[in-house]
Prior knowledge:
This protein is mainly α and 244 residues long. It has two domains: 19-44 and 55-104, no CATH class; 109-243. It is 69% helix and 0% strand. The chain is elongated. The relative contact order is 0.06. Keywords: Membrane, Transmembrane, Transmembrane helix. The chain crosses the membrane at residues 227-243.
Amino acid sequence: MASNGMIPFQVPTLNNSNYDNWSIKMKALLGVQDVWEMIEKGYKEPQDESSLSQAQKDSLRDSRKRDKKALYLIFQGLDDDSFEKIFDAKSAKEAWEKLQTSYKGAEQVKKVRLQTLRGEFEALHMKEVEVVSDYFTRVLAVSNQLKRNGEKLEDVRIMEKILRSLDSKFDHIVAIIEETKDLEAMTIEQLLGSLQAYEEKKKKKQVITEQLLKTQINSAKEEGCCLYIYILYFFIFYFLYYYF
């Protein structure tokens, strides 16, 4: 934290892979510092400053000060490589636009990026050993990148994607949700909550099933039952666990 109060919190650092997140954080920071307008609209330098009224001179002085403050904050968020891209920028708006062009690219590059992200989104599938909250995080990470690059992605489409790409152990709850719930009236957080509750219930059932199976096998061993009895118990509890 700076002692003069100019920067009340840490400025995020831009690197080669975090431009989207960096720009969101910087926009918030510049807004808090009341200088985002310098990025969004900029200001015009007069051709003849001597012809300005005192009020206009005061306004110009204020705009210059706010612009330098915005430029300084941008500089603070850059490593050496990124700084080289904008070292000669004369205004905060120019610096911001140079970074945007450099990291987001031209329109054609943006289209290619969108196509890549769309492919990643469609290819997402829950791993067998993955917990549902981790899968949601992966899906939302790609979804957010798509949105930042201009894709119109509604929450309903994201939830539909999640439901059709869950691991097969969620088939029962997926069928119930699709038959009884209106996804248009449901939030992503509510869907996650329902799936987590089902996941927790499955885990508890698995523990109980394993304990019962172990008890029955031990009992069968004590009674001298044959191997096929153990196998029968195994398939009974397997059936109960996966289909009920």
